[in-house]
Amino acid sequence: MGQNKNAPHEVIKKHLVKGQKLDLTKDNPAVDQIHIGLGWDLAGQPIDLDTQVFFFK
What we know:
It comes from Bacillus safensis. This is TerD domain-containing protein. This protein is mostly loops and about 55 residues long. It has a domain at about 20-55. It is about 0% helix and about 0% strand.
């Protein structure tokens, strides 16, 4: 909030498997924005897509 929307930002891509947890602040404790994108192959196997994000400050 209040930041320049055109300011450069770091993009980190992670591929997770079912049940895997990811600490988003481990390498960057000052993170204040997170954008999450989900994707899957519709021609592949059936999917089970669940997403949870908790951010406490």
